[in-house]
Design a protein that fits this description.
This protein is mainly α. It is 75% helix and 3% strand. The protein has helices at residues 19-49, 56-84, 92-125, 130-133, 136-158, 179-183, 191-224, 229-258, 266-290, 293-306; strands at residues 9-12, 89-91, 171-172. It has a three-stranded mixed sheet. Helix 3 packs antiparallel against helix 8.
Length: 307
């Protein structure tokens, strides 16, 4: 960035320099963002107002929807601004803040997903003790822990950025500020930052994924012991939505952040970021709504009351 005190901003290249593509991208991603807000806010309202959606699973789902709104709102509005703006810049402090909120949202979300996996484990493997184990106080502790881990992960990785100097290129070949993109621009030694990010991300990723996989090992083992195929199908359907969401989020997010730099490419990074930052928050409410009869029934009831 030359002299850091003289220029306190980064350039975000966005997705394309083609005017027609920029117009298309702007309206396309604006539509996705609006649908994401509507879908996730609707889920939160349904859980809050429907008596049939007061179980722990829907308590976690409402927090997942809130995080999806946050996740999408951290990235998409600035992305839309960058697409149409002539000066495609973002201040250094704003860039650091965006990277911090992305880390916070992603970390909190993986532990919310782990909590939902544990909830399904208790419901399927320990049905007689389900309400005793998944009581209100315990569910609140799980959610609070997910949020706290998210805060720690975000601060641990973004506060050290304040010590870095940027004296070379200030161009980020991306549509938002993510930690790997910021570190690649620093003219200061970033080995410790990269190792901290890799280790902390690995711990978060492995621990949350381990808890989720362990829950599903017990779930699948229990399902296979059910005698009737119809019983197995109905039992598995109670956790199929969650399994789809977990696969989408973990698969794209962890491959983006934790793969070796030798496998990196600008196009691939953008595709993966669009998937887990923009599309996944939209798909989550759709997946849970389409595959969940209770959510669909609550939605129809709300529509009848309104109209």
């Amino acid at each position: 960035m030359g002299n850091q005190t003289a220029e306190c901003y980064f350039y975000l290249l966005g997705l394309s320099n083609n005017l027609q593509l920029q117009i298309f991208f702007f309206f396309f991603f604006l539509l996705i963002y609006l649908l994401t807000l509507v879908g996730n806010i609707m889920i939160m309202l349904l859980v809050r107002t429907s008596m049939h959606l007061q179980s722990p699973m829907y308590f976690f789902l409402s927090h997942l929807s809130f995080l999806d709104v946050c996740y999408s709102s951290v990235t998409v509005p600035k992305m839309l601004e960058i697409i149409i703006a002539k000066q495609k810049t973002i201040s250094v402090s704003e860039c650091f803040a965006q990277a911090s909120f992305i880390l916070f949202s992603a970390t909190s979300e993986v532990f919310i997903l782990s909590s939902m996996a544990y909830d399904r484990y208790c419901a399927i493997c320990k049905p007689l003790r389900y309400m005793e184990i998944m009581n209100v106080a315990f569910c609140k502790k799980l959610v609070a822990s997910a949020w706290m881990i998210g805060v720690i992960q975000a601060l641990a990785n973004t506060l050290p950025l304040l010590k870095l100097r940027f004296c070379g290129s200030n161009i980020i070949r991306h549509f938002n500020c993510e930690l790997p993109s910021i570190l690649s621009l620093s003219c200061t030694e970033t080995f410790s930052n990269k190792m901290l990010f890799f280790i902390s991300g690995g711990i978060v990723g492995v621990s949350s994924l381990f808890l989720t996989v362990l829950s599903y090992i017990h779930i699948i083992s229990t399902i296979l012991r059910i005698n009737s195929s119809e019983g197995r199908r109905k039992t598995f359907s109670t956790c199929s939505s969650h399994l789809i969401v977990v696969t989408l989020f973990y698969g794209t997010g962890y491959f983006r952040y934790l793969r070796p730099s030798s496998a990196s490419s600008v196009l691939l990074d953008e595709i993966l970021s669009i998937q887990y930052c923009i599309l996944t928050p939209l798909l989550n409410p759709i997946i849970y709504s389409l595959k969940n009869n209770e959510v669909k029934a609550a939605f129809r009831k709300i529509l009848r009351l309104k109209f």
